[in-house]
Design brief:
The protein is mainly beta and about 475 residues long. The protein is built from four helices and 32 strands. It folds into four domains: about 130 residues, Immunoglobulins (Immunoglobulin-like, Sandwich), CATH 2.60.40.10; about 90 residues, Immunoglobulins (Immunoglobulin-like), CATH 2.60.40.10; about 90 residues, Sandwich (Immunoglobulin-like), CATH 2.60.40.10; about 70 residues, no CATH class. It is elongated. Strands 3, 5, 6, 9, 10 and 11 form a six-stranded mixed sheet that branches.
Length: about 475
C-alpha cells in the first residue's frame, strides 16, 4: 500500500521537476534557467552555446560533447574553442565559444554541473545537436582506378567516393556524357559515402568513358566531377572473309580476311580443303590477304578457311570457292522462284557491266563516263559554237560604197534621201525658176529609201518618190 501511495504522490513531482530542469543534490537545488539549443551552422562561421544555472555554490559548470568533457587546449595560440563564465542575477552563465567552425565540431553538446570535491557529474542539461553545413573537401569526388585490361564478359565495378557531409551530396554516373541509371543508394563507411555501379563488360563498351558528378543542395550551382580512363575491353577477333563470288577462271582473285579485335590480331593462317598448290596461291607479309593466282574450274568447291589469333583467343571463318565462267546474280541462286520485278536495278546494272567485261569489253564505269563527257564536249564545240557564231555575226553592220566611191558602214536600218531636179516640158508650177536658155520650168524631186534588218525571215525595202506637179 505504501509503495502505491509513493508512486502516486512522488512520481508526478519528479516528472514536474525534471520538466523545469530543477535538480536537488546534497541539500542543493540546481535550476537550469537557460539551456543550449541545437543549430545548423555553415562551415567556417563562429558559434556560441550558452546555459544559465542557479543554485550553485562551489560546483563547477563545464561542457561535454558526445558524452566527453571538452578539454581546452593549453596552447595559448590555439583559442578556437574557449569557455567564458560570468555571474548573473539569476545564476551562473557559461558560454562555449567556437570560432571558425570545422566539420569535426558537429555533435551533441551538454552543459554539465560537476562537484568541486569529487569531480563527479551532479546534473546536466538536455543535449543540443550542432549540425555543420558544408560541401565536401576539394579533392572529392574520387573515381575508381580501373584495370588496364578488362576481358569481355567479366564483371566490372565502378565506384565514386565522396565525403560524408550535411546535407548529403548526390552522386550520378554518366557514360559518354549520357546519364546511367543506378538503383543502388549511397553507402556510408566512416566519414565517406560511396556510389557503386556494377556492369558486365561487353566488346561494345570498349573505349567508353565514365564520369561521376557530385551535387549538393547547399548550393544550387555547385557541381564537381571526376573522370575514369576509357574502358579497355579486350575480346577475341571477329572475322569475315571478303571476296568475289563467283571467281572468273584464269583471273587473279584476292581473298581478304577482315577482322575486328582488341588487342589486334597477331597471326593469320589460311587452310584449304582440298589443299591448294603453293604455286597457285600467294599471301602477303602478315598473312591477311590470300591471292589465287590462276583459279581454275577444278578448284571450284574448295573450302577455304581463315584463322585469326590474338591474346584473348582464336576464331575462324570459312567460304566455299565458286569458279564459274558466268557471273550470276547471287539472289537468284538463293531463290530461283523470286519475281524479276523485285530485282534491284543497281544490281542488274552491275551484272550487265560484269557480263560485258566477261565478253571482252573491259570498260569500267569511270571510263564510260569519261567517254560520254568527251562526246558531249565535242558536240558543243563542233555544232553549237559555229551556230552561235553565225547568229552573232550576221547581225553585224555591212560595208557598202556610196555615190562618191567611199566605203561606208551600212547600218541595220538606214534611210537614204536623194533630191534633184527633173525637166518636164510643162509650164505648171511656175514658182520654180526656169532652166536657163529654155522655156522649161524645173520640177523638184525628193526620194527616200528605207531598209529593215536583214536577219528577219522576210526582207523589206521601201522606196518613196515625191515630186511637185
Amino acid at each position: 500500500m505504501f509503495n502505491i501511495l509513493f508512486k502516486i504522490l512522488v512520481t508526478p513531482t519528479i516528472i514536474s521537476l525534471m520538466g523545469t530542469f530543477i535538480f536537488y543534490c546534497c541539500g542543493a537545488v540546481f535550476i537550469f534557467e537557460d539551456v543550449p539549443s541545437g543549430d545548423r551552422i555553415r562551415l567556417g562561421e563562429d558559434h556560441l552555446l550558452s546555459c544559465v544555472v542557479s543554485g550553485m555554490v562551489n560546483e563547477r559548470l563545464t561542457w561535454y560533447k558526445d558524452g566527453q568533457q571538452i578539454q581546452l587546449a593549453e596552447d595559448d595560440d590555439d583559442t578556437r574553442i574557449s569557455i567564458a563564465k560570468s555571474e548573473l542575477s539569476n545564476g551562473n552563465l557559461s558560454t562555449l565559444v567556437i570560432d571558425n567552425v570545422m566539420q569535426g565540431d558537429a555533435g551533441l553538446y551538454q552543459c554539465v554541473i560537476i562537484s568541486s570535491m569529487s569531480g563527479s557529474v551532479l546534473s546536466s542539461s538536455p543535449e543540443a545537436e550542432l549540425i555543420i553545413l558544408s560541401l565536401p573537401a576539394p579533392e572529392y569526388p574520387l573515381c575508381s582506378e580501373l584495370d588496364s585490361a578488362i576481358i569481355a564478359g567479366s564483371i566490372v565495378e565502378l565506384t565514386c567516393v565522396s565525403e560524408r557531409v550535411y546535407p548529403q551530396v548526390s552522386l550520378q554516373f554518366t557514360r559518354n556524357s549520357e546519364t546511367v541509371n543506378t538503383k543502388k543508394m549511397l553507402t556510408e563507411t566512416g566519414n565517406l559515402v560511396t556510389l557503386l555501379l556494377t556492369l558486365t563488360a561487353q566488346k561494345d563498351n570498349n573505349g567508353d568513358i565514365y564520369d561521376c558528378h557530385q551535387y549538393s543542395s547547399l548550393e544550387s550551382n555547385y557541381q564537381k566531377s571526376c573522370t575514369m580512363k576509357p574502358l579497355n575491353i579486350q575480346y577475341k577477333p571477329e572475322i569475315k572473309i571478303q571476296h568475289t563470288n563467283p571467281v572468273i577462271p584464269g583471273r587473279e582473285t584476292i581473298l581478304f580476311c577482315q577482322t575486328f579485335a582488341n588487342p589486334p590480331v597477331s597471326r593469320y593462317q589460311w587452310i584449304s580443303v582440298p589443299q591448294l598448290k603453293a604455286e597457285d596461291i600467294f599471301t602477303d607479309g602478315n598473312g591477311q590477304v590470300l591471292k589465287l593466282l590462276r583459279p581454275s574450274l577444278k578448284q571450284s568447291g574448295t573450302n577455304i578457311t581463315c584463322i585469326a589469333t590474338n591474346e584473348i583467343g582464336q576464331v575462324s571463318s570459312s567460304i566455299e570457292l565458286q569458279v564459274s565462267q558466268t557471273i550470276r546474280n547471287p539472289e537468284n541462286n538463293k531463290n530461283p522462284h523470286e519475281s524479276t520485278n523485285n530485282k534491284n536495278p543497281h544490281e542488274s546494272t552491275n551484272n550487265q557491266m560484269t557480263e560485258m567485261s566477261n565478253n571482252g569489253i573491259g570498260l569500267s564505269l569511270d571510263v564510260v563516263i569519261i567517254i560520254a563527257a568527251g562526246v558531249v564536249i565535242i558536240v558543243v564545240l563542233v555544232v553549237l559554237v559555229p551556230v552561235y557564231h553565225y547568229c552573232l555575226c550576221r547581225n553585224n553592220n555591212t560595208t557598202t560604197i556610196d555615190s562618191l566611191g567611199k566605203e561606208v558602214t551600212q547600218p541595220e536600218v538606214y534611210y537614204e534621201a536623194r533630191e534633184g531636179v527633173i525637166l518636164r516640158h510643162t509650164i505648171q508650177d511656175r514658182s520654180l525658176p526656169r532652166v536657163p536658155t529654155t522655156e522649161v520650168y524645173g520640177h523638184w524631186r525628193h526620194s527616200t529609201a528605207s531598209q529593215v534588218p536583214n536577219d528577219l525571215e522576210s526582207h523589206s525595202y521601201t522606196y518613196i518618190d515625191t515630186e511637185n506637179d
